[in-house]
Each structure stands twice: as structure tokens, then as C-alpha cells.
Fold each of these.
Amino acid sequence: MCGIVGFVGKKSFDEKGGVNGAEVVVDGLKRLEYRGYDSWGVAIPGEKKILLHKAVGKIGGFELSSAPELKGTIAIGHTRWATHGGVTEINSHPHLSADKTIAVVHNGIIENYQEMRAKLEKKGVKFRSQTDTEVIPQAIQIELKKTPDFKKAVRNVLNELEGSYAVAIVVEGGKKLIGARKGSPLVFGIGKDGYYLGSDVPAFLKYANKAIFLDDLEMVEADEKGYEIINITTGKKVEKKITKIAWSIEDAEKGGYPHFMIKEMLEQPMVLDKTAATSNVELKKAAAMIKRAKQIWVVACGTALHAGMYGSYIFALNNDINLRPVSAGEFPYFAKFVGKNDLVICVSQSGETADVMEAVKSAHDSGAKVLALVNVMGSSLMRASDYSIVTKAGPEICVLSTKAYLSQVAMFMMLSYELNNKIAAGKKQLKAIKADAEKILVKDSLAKIKKVAKGLARADNIYAIGRGVNYPTSLEACLKIKEVSYIHAEGFAGGDLKHGPIALIAPGTPVLVFVANDGPKGAPFGGAAKEIVSNAMEVKARGAEVIGISYENNQVFDRYFAVGDHGIFTGIVAIIYSQVLSYYIALEKKLDPDKPRNLAKSVTVK
Ligand code: AGP
């Protein structure tokens, strides 16, 4: 939930063609701000001392010209999402050893930091902060007394840490940049001017498009001459594949839009196109795992869980296959039922969600196989799974997941068609869905949605109802609304309304009603469309403002947003209306859709 960046130049910064590490790191931190924006800091190992610059708040507005002393060939930086210790300057990273010769930035949680801190304090070490991170530089300084080799001393300390870390380390007068990871992401970038470390690729994509995705317990040491990667436990050299990053930096930047959220929503038709182009090899391999499985679980969090739920309806209705969706945080209660012939499908945009990674471990402990639908190449989930399909959303920077959700549901659709050996038909239908999505994301349509959003911005509560595939659609619609506008919003299955929730409906209460023509074939009640429209009448009778998102209009709707009739896949298009509605509600409330309060892009702690 934090972002770290590091750089070491191939030339000294004050030589011709040299690069100031501080510039690279500050730029990189600004691109990683979505990973946490409570505070930030930069450290530069000078000859005589480590230059340190820290500040509470977002790095967005900081200009390096205001700190001209920040110059150096090596630099590390950190943008923080507080987990241990309040949001204060002293708790912000980088953290130094007592003698200020070692600086560390860290993403993750050191679970045994209290014991380590107590041990170090017994040796007379004075701590400055309340963070878990500070034990790392402090412990390295003590370790150096008995292990003069710096790299070995670092390894010894890292091997003592329990929990998760991605760290970048520099030492006073040092010429090397060290990076290491266990349980938190860290990517090593290879550029013409130097070497980079980043929690995510956007940190250095402007400078380098070749990267090595470090695996757990790997450490890289780089200097102007080159780099070496070793295993932290054994110290042995590790050979790693260099990946060419297909994303352009524009992909990872706003591209002229006011917010990442609107940019990424507008990219959704392209995401559907890219999903339709998923290689048959990937789909066949994943489908084979599904066919072989005795029980199939879908495990995810938040938006990704809603995509998994949607996938379970697709498989039930289109393939007669039972997928059991479970929130990753709740999975431990059911893990004992996972058998060795089962398949656990993990859905995750970041591939770093702690609860999902725990679920992978327990699935493997049961002997089950894990199939990942993951958006970030090289992520922990990708590397921990037996097989991964990379969803085709591209970098999703906004804290709120929109295009990644669409890419996940669309991937379930592709798998469903592959399972029926009808992938060509599936790709054709997805292209039709893409054309429909495009119609929503044009100027006039956006203006109509914005107008409705203005009214909704004054609501205290907003509800959404749907049946079948549109039950997860309703849940996802309401998650977006609450995340970005802080208005209480709740999704219900239409059939649940009369069992309590309808008591919430008062005159003027806005209710989104999602209607899909899931058709008589195989759908319960002869098709959810009729049933959900009658639910709409029930809430209407109690004064609700009914906003229909449907493949056909109905007099029960006070407002109507049209979607094409794509049967059980209609929700893939319908959700776009509620995403855009939530975006404009946030703007109407003068909120920043890219930086919703209390949230971070990737929940890498439990
Ligand atoms: C998305 O809008 C939410 N911010 C959040 O629920 C997110 O979907 C969830 O944390 C899962 O993240 P992941 O897909 O990276 O695993």
C-alpha cells in the first residue's frame, strides 16, 4: 500500500550525460502516488552524509527546484500509506540507521518488528519513529558490527524479518543501490541511463521499457557497471528473464484527461477489444483446468469479487458449471472444504491483495490448483498461481477499479465460450458488446448521465437492484458510488427486497434497476427481466425514483439508460452507466475521483 522508487545512474550525475537520481525518483513517486499519499520522502547517499527530504501530504505539488540540494547519482524514494505509526514527518520514509549512514524505504508489514525493536533497544539503539520499517536500517547497522560485508549484513537482517517487504537501500558514500522483496511487489528497470527500482512499472516507464520482475526472497544490487540478482536465503546468483514492457508511458499517465478514472472508463471499449483478442492457447489451458476440476471456487476482494460472482452466473447459465464465489477475507472459514482435485480461481487487478495471496497458499496446501485472472504482469499472484490469464485492462491507476472489472467479467465470458467450444461466437458477441459500450461513452450520452448524476449527488442513500447476473452488477454499481462519492449505496438481489430492504425506500429514494434479458433458456423464473421489473414497480409504489438501466424501456422507469440486448452479458455494458454516474456524482460533490479518502489501490496488508 506504499510506493517505492530507486535509481542508480551509469554515469555520475555531474558528468556530461549524467542523470540526477533525485529527478528520476521524484518523478517516479508522482506516478506511484496512487499507491499511497499520506507522506513522501527521498534519500540521496552523499560522500559525507545521506541527504534526506521528507514531507507529509501528497508529492503531487512538489518541485525539485525548491530543494536544489537534492542531487546525486543514486536516490531512493517512498510515497506512504500509513499502516504502523501516524501520518507524521518522522514516520515518513526513508528511515535511517542511528548513525544515519543507512537509508531504507519499505512497502509491506514487518510482523515481528516489536520483538526486533525490543532486541535492538536492549543493545542501546534509539528509535526515532513508531514505524515497523525503522527496524531494518537499525538492524543493519548493528549487524555490520559482526558482518562487515554490507550485502551479507543486509541479507542476514532480511532473513530475520517476518511478514512482507519490498525495500530499496542505500548507504552513505556508497555507489550501489540495493532492492529486495518478499511478499510485496518490486520491479527492476533496465534503462540506457541507469537502473531503476519501482513498486510498479509506471515508476520508471518514462526511462526504461525493459524490466525484471523480482520474485520473493530475491535481492538485486546495481551500480554504474551493472547488476547482480541473488537469492536472499542462499546468497546464490539467480538468472532472471528480462521482460519488454508493452505499456507506453501514456498508458500509465492521464493522457490529457482530468482524472485517471474517466480516462480508464473511456478505455473500456478498447479493453473489450483486447479481451476478444485473448489468445486461444491461454483460454484453452484455463478451460482445461476448469473441466478437470471437481469443485471450483472463485476467490477475490471488492470489485474483483463482484466480477467473480458475475462469472459464477455466466458459468451456471451458459455452461452448467458451478463456481462458488467466496470473499478472500472469508475464505479461511471454508478452505477446509477445498480438495486436491479442486480449482481455485483468483481474480485480482493488482495481483498483490494480501487476502487473495493467503487464499492461494491455503489452496495449494490443500493440493488444489490455482488459476489467476490477474491484470498486473509479474505480480505476486501471477507468480504464485499454477496458471494465469492476464486480463487486458492495461495499467489501472485510479484507486477505483472500472476497466479492470470489465476486463475480468469479459474474460469469464471468453472462458465460458471456450468451454462450449464456441470461442469464435464469443469473440463476435464481445465485439458487439464493445460497440454498445462505445455508444455510452460519447459526448451526448456522457452529458445525459452527468445531468442525472447532479440530482443523485444530493441523495443520502442510493440503492441498486438486479437479478441473476445483475445482482453482482448491482453490488458493483453501489461499491463504485460509495467509494468515490461517500454516499451510502447498497445493492440487493431483487428477490431479497421484500425480506427487509424495501423498508429503506422512502419518497424520492433513488433506485437503479438493472434489467438483462437473460432469456427463458435455463434462467430461473422464466427469465429475470419480468421479475426485476415487478420489483421496480414495488419500489416505485413507495415513492422511489426509478432509474432503469435496461435493454428495453418501461413505464416504471423515471429515467432510462438504454443498453443493447446481450442476454446474460448485458451487465458488461450496463455497469458502465453506473461507473460514469458515480464519477459525475463525485465531481458534483467536488471530490477527487482518483484519490478517494481512506482507500488505496492495492490492499497488500491483511
Ligand atoms: C475497487 O474499486 C476497490 N477499490 C477494491 O474493492 C478492489 O477491487 C479490491 O481491493 C481488490 O483489489 P485487486 O483486484 O487488486 O485484488
Note: The chain is about 35% helix and 20% strand.
Amino acid sequence: MKGQWEVVIGLEIHTQLATVSKIFSGAATAYGAAPNTQACLVDLGYPGTLPVLNREVVRMAAMFGLAVNATIAPRSVFARKNYFYPDLPKGYQISQYELPIVAGGELFIAGDDGAQKRIGITRAHLEEDAGKSIHEGFDRQSGIDLNRAGTPLLEIVSEPDLRSAREAVAYMRKIHSIVRYLGISDGNMQEGSFRCDANVSVRPRGQEKLGTRAELKNLNSFRFVERAINFEIERQIDVLEDGGEVVQETRLYDADRDETRSMRSKEEANDYRYFPDPDLLPVEIDAAWVEELRSALPELPDAKRERFVAQYELKPDDAEILTASRALADYYEAAVSAGSGAPQAVGNWVIGDLTGALNRDGLDIAESKVAAEQLAGLVDRIADNTISGKIAKEVFDAMWAGEGSADEIIAARGLKQITDTSAIEAIVDKVIAANPGQVAEYQAGKDKLIGFFVGQVMKETQGKANPGVVNQMLKAKLAG
Ligand code: ADP
Ligand code: MG
């Protein structure tokens, strides 16, 4: 039955902009300060104070718009979104409504069918974040921390173009990658700097009209986005197949129980009574400044990926992984240019052992214990047959532990590959003489035993013989 339904998803992504001060005040935005030490009178909504727009957030929003091929509005307007909540002292949030700063963009993801797929970006608007309620450590009371009040957010709204949880995650990852490339957000999801609301509906395949949607609030990890959407799709299909109707509502994802729960229905929804904020002038942006920003755009993930494929002849999937973050891409390029040119091999090491070690130790690429030059040195020693790929893993671990360059470690530990064929030949002869039974079986046609012989020789040489040479020599000798 599932095949009859088409899934439709649109995301609203909230990105915290990486400014030093808040969107309408001079208070600091640094994360993790003691409660209420970074909220000034403007953030607290004191009567008589006035907001002053931080120019930097305008620049950041415009950079984002340019990166996704959108229009930067020559004139945009801040509006008041009115609702009552304890963490919102003014009783309204300053946001943009009818005239957002960014409109009509796009980006491309790998769609479910494997082809490049265009996802429309409806708009991106600037707004201030609210404070936070704190429940821990309070008995029958809640605390309020207003440090986050007034922190600048860019809310990025997609068209309902996504057709599965997988596509939604691919889109969210692409936005995440773009904002970090641009340096406009740290994208830190644990700290809430990058989170999304997912609007999910289903409709009978072939039907034009969109189904009724549920909005899943505040998803702050890629895994939760995927799980929450998949749960919600199943739930809605079950409702419809039981003859029921999906109601428009806001739902919360409970990660512990892996389910979504109703928070409020459309009837209970707020009427925000939006109106232009009389305290703020419209934002007017001149075209020349936009062109200045356009020329300052860095190379973006898609362009970098394509260049990596063309320039380094990398497999496209590897290029995608290596360009997911600018820091990783820079590391990769530094390693390639420090070595004597084996770009795919360098890529394999970065994606494999290096990323593995970083994940294991919970480190960022910037904190890597193996510098790009060191990794290049290691790849070069494999390429010139000084060490085998297997020994290279031991050298890598030693580099990670701080024992120096590949050359230093190879010398200190005596890991240099035995290239002297007469030395290898002596060991090959010894292994053949010591295993007459296996020799007979091999010669009777059990070809697979070659692996056993190679293994024995490698063991005798502590892995230092060139496996290719050993293989060839064994085959020749065993053939008699
Ligand atoms: P609101 O302001 O009430 O959240 P919007 O119309 O601005 O609603 O839409 C918010 C998001 O929901 C957008 O990303 C949009 O693409 C998506 N969306 C709208 N209708 C649907 C639907 N029927 N199914 C899935 N997503 C939808
Ligand atoms: Mg919404």
C-alpha cells in the first residue's frame, strides 16, 4: 500500500549567525556564559530602549542569498511577530514577514533516483532568537536565561520539493555546508546554532493538491531529522489507510521513544498579528554593495567538488566527502601539494584512517594529530614501495601518537620494506620446504593456498617484504 503515497517535505532551517554581538544590541553572543550575564536592556525589552540593526547580519544574509542564487531584496522590512511566552520579554519577536531579505533561491542535492535534483528556496529572513526556560535545578518553578534573546538567526525556508527523509537530510547537509563555507555560522548543532522544523505531508501518488501537513519542531541533529520524518510518514499513512484524516498541527519529536507527539493543533495556533516594527527603518541595500559581496564569495561546496573531480581525478563520492567542510578540503589539498602527487591515495587516507582517528578521539580536522605534510610523507613512502599499505597503518598510528614523520618512524622502527630479492627468496624457499603438505595440495589444484604461503612469508619478514614480489616469486617456485 505504501507505494501509493507520495511524501512531501519542506524545511525551515534556523541558522544562528556568527556575529560578535546581537542583532539589535551590543550584548555579546558567546555561548555558555552564566545565565543572564549577556542580556542588555534592549534584549530585556525595557521600555524606552530602541533596537539598532547590526550591519554584519545584513552582510551575512546577503552572502547566503548570493550563494544559493537568490534575489537580495533592495528593500526589506522587519516585523513584529506577537505572542506571549516567558522567554520573550517584549511580547513579540522581531522577524521579517512580507518582505524578507532573501527570496527565490535554489540548491542541488543528489535526489533519491541518484540524479541531481533542484530544491527551491522560498525565502530566507532575519530574526532574533528568544531566551530559554530552564527547568533543571528548580523546584516547581522555571528559570529564564535571556542570554540567547536577541541572537541573530537566519531562517531558511524551502519549497515543498523534498520527497523523502533522505532528501531532507541531504538538503539540510548542503545548507549546513554552505553556511560554514561562507563563515556566517558555526553550524554547531549541539549548541543549537543549526536546527530545523520539518513540514511533512503525504498525498496519493498522482494527486496535485498537497496533503495536510504536520510541522515537526526543533530537530537538532541530522539523525533526528531522518528518524522524526520517517516516523511521521508512517503515522500519516496509517491514519489515512485507516480512513482517517491528518490534522494540521505542530508535533514534537521524542528521541528517547523515537516518535512524534502532538504539541498544538491549528485551532490552538497563535495568531501572530504581524505588523511592521515602527522602531526599525526598512533595510535598503544598494546593488553595488551586493556586487561587492558577490565578488567576495568563496569557492562553494558544489564548485569545489567538481574541481576536485576534474583536477585530482577523484571518485565523485570521495570528492563529495572531502568537500563537505572547507577545513577538510583545505587539509586534503595541503596534503596533495606537499606530496609527490597521488591524489586518490591521499583521499583514501583522509577519508579512511584519518577520519577514523579523528572520530575515535572526538577531534575536529583542525585538531588533527597528523599534519597534512606528515600524511603526504606517508603516502609517498607507500607509493615508492618503501613500506607496504599494511605497515603504513602502523606508521600512521605512530604518527598519530606523536612519534614524528613517516621517514623518522620507518627508520626508528626498522620498517623499511625488504627489496633485496635474494633475501626474500631465501625466506620463500624456507616456507616452501617447511610446508610439504600444503605444497602438494596447491600443486594438486588448490589455488587458494597461495594466500597461506604469502601469509607465512609476510610473518617471517614481519610484514616487511613487498607482497607483490612475494606473490610472484611463490607462484613461480610452486609451479615448479
Ligand atoms: P508557516 O509559515 O505556517 O510555517 P509556510 O507556508 O511558510 O507555513 O510553509 C513552511 C514550510 O512548510 C515551507 O518549507 C513549505 O515548503 C512547507 N510546506 C507547506 N505546505 C506543505 C505541505 N502540504 N506539505 C509539506 N510541506 C509543506
Ligand atoms: Mg513554520
Note: The two ends are 64 Å apart (CA to CA).
